[in-house]
Design goal:
By secondary structure, this protein is an alpha+beta fold. The protein is 24% helix and 32% strand. The protein starts with a helix and ends with a strand.
Length: 497
């Protein structure tokens, strides 16, 4: 064992018996070997007793359309024929392949918790998704029909309402921003409506991004969270909800000590909006952003790499009239530092719709401040552009090769062939060398290079001339603004070496 090996080595160096050193270590460092500490603090039982009646089971059911498959071939025997006909009749298949199957009733279970004595319950959206009926089962077994007040798929939360003739036991939210790594937390669920189940562990990490949505900043904990615990609360030792248990990483479906909870700081704002409006009302800037990589930061002379690079501007969004442009790097929003790309969506979403905010950008190496009046994200998402595909053309373009790219000036024939939107201007890629740096950057035929080093490109010859100038200037890479045929933009730092 590593501990014994370490003590023995230390003993040899100190010319003492290993046992004596171990005894000394126990006296000096009792916390490491204390069985009481291994079990966790004594307050866990007190917290569990205080809050467990606020944790509920969420039972849902829905009708699922059944589908008939081909019936098995039945031997030519009257008795067997009657037997099989009865069997399929009992299964709702009516004894014939053309009969309509009866819908099936599917049930699922999850957890939730009461946040208001009047009967407001919080759970995960995926627990109640597509449910026809939702039942909240209290810790004492009482069953209450629930109505859905609102849900949010981006943070995976839902708010329910139940009606009772007496106040229910509710819990309060705490501040998840005050959680420290290694702090003890308690996960409570009610997965099988048998009553609350309590597990405990520590905060393993904060601000985890598990690529489940645009606002990921999960609390990671090793408190066991198993199937059916989704939607249950994560408590601190003051009995406050600091997280909502949402996801686990597990090859078997059981806990392996990697669980994730939505922080209360994120959840409270969403829950308040769902209670008040039945929907979310997030702030909207109207930009498409991407990561500021080391290569892009070098091209833009930003040291160290930080902020969110604006890859595109929504024509109907708030950023455009404020003067924010593609190529700007947003480094501060409403007084809050934007250290990395994923900080910006969360900060913007948490800002009230209609608020006038200062946005600090870096443009061509210089800081500028723009004032933006935020729109509403949900309104922006409803603006869907209709793309009309055109017939392809067999006309062959005049091609120029640069940096492993076959480039052609974008004309009507190429616009038709690659279905490039009319609003996209630049030089179109018609081929990519397999062993080129361009291929490793996932450039492909149909992509359009709009800018080189933040200057517009008019033709394939223009592109080549700009690349040669960057090489003469000793630049290690070229910053390209690239549009896909639909007009979505992204920046790419393409090596010139």
């Amino acid at each position: 064992m590593p501990m014994l090996g370490t003590l023995a080595q230390f003993a040899r160096r100190a010319r003492r018996p290993a046992l004596a050193v171990a005894a000394t270590a126990v006296l000096v460092f009792p916390a490491f070997l204390s069985p009481a500490l291994a079990r966790g603090p004594d307050g866990i039982a007190d917290v569990a007793e205080q809050v467990i009646d606020s944790v509920v089971n969420i039972s849902t059911s829905q009708n699922v359309e059944a589908h008939n498959g081909p019936l098995p071939q039945i031997p030519n025997d009257p008795q067997l024929d009657e037997l099989f006909r009865d069997f399929f009749n009992r299964r709702g298949q009516g004894g014939g392949q053309n009969s309509a199957p009866a819908p099936r009733r599917v049930n699922s279970l999850g957890s939730g918790f009461i946040i208001d004595t009047s009967g407001i319950v919080v759970t995960n959206n995926h627990v109640i998704a597509d449910a026809d009926e939702i039942t909240v089962i209290l810790n004492d077994g009482t069953r209450l029909k629930a109505t859905l007040l609102g849900k949010d798929t981006k943070v995976d939360l839902a708010v329910l309402k139940v009606t009772t003739d007496h106040p229910l036991k509710a819990v309060k939210f705490g501040d998840s921003d005050k959680l420290r790594l290694g702090e003890w937390v308690i996960a409570i669920g009610n997965p099988f409506s048998l009553g609350g189940t309590v597990t405990a562990g520590i905060v393993s990490a904060r601000n985890r991004d598990i690529n489940s949505g645009p606002y990921d900043n999960y609390i990671q904990t090793d408190a066991p969270i198993n199937r059916g615990n989704s939607g249950g609360p994560l408590f601190n030792l003051d009995g406050e909800v600091v997280g909502i248990n949402t996801a686990i990483i597990s090859p078997s479906g059981g806990s392996i000590g990697i669980g994730f909870s939505v922080p209360s700081k994120t959840a409270v704002a969403v829950i308040d909006q769902l209670k008040q409006f039945g929907e979310t009302r997030r702030g909207w800037l109207g930009v498409r952003i991407q990561l500021v990589t080391d290569e892009i930061a070098e091209s833009l002379n930003i040291k160290p790499p930080h902020g969110a690079l604006v890859a595109g501007i929504d024509d109907k969004g708030p950023a455009k009239p404020a003067g924010i442009e593609a190529g700007d790097v947003i480094v501060k929003f409403d007084g809050k530092e934007i250290k990395e790309m994923r900080d910006l969506p969360r900060v913007v979403a948490d800002t009230p719709v209609g608020k006038s905010v200062d946005v600090v950008i870096i443009r061509k190496g210089q800081e500028e401040t723009k004032t933006v009046v935020l729109g509403r994200l949900e309104d922006g998402e409803k603006q869907v552009a209709d793309a009309k595909p055109d017939a392809q053309s067999d006309q062959k373009p005049v091609v120029k090769k640069t940096l492993g790219l076959d480039l052609a000036t974008l004309d009507d024939a190429l616009r038709t062939k690659y279905k490039v939107k009319d609003s996209v201007k630049g030089v179109v890629i018609v081929g990519v060398d397999a062993d080129s740096a361009a291929n490793s950057q996932h450039l492909s035929p149909g992509d359009v290079i709009v800018e080189v080093a933040q200057e517009a490109v008019a033709s394939a010859d223009d592109f080549s001339a700009k690349i040669e100038k960057l090489k003469r200037d000793g630049r290690p890479s070229a910053l390209l603004l690239v549009a896909n045929p639909a007009g979505d933009l992204r920046f790419i730092a393409l090596s010139l070496k």
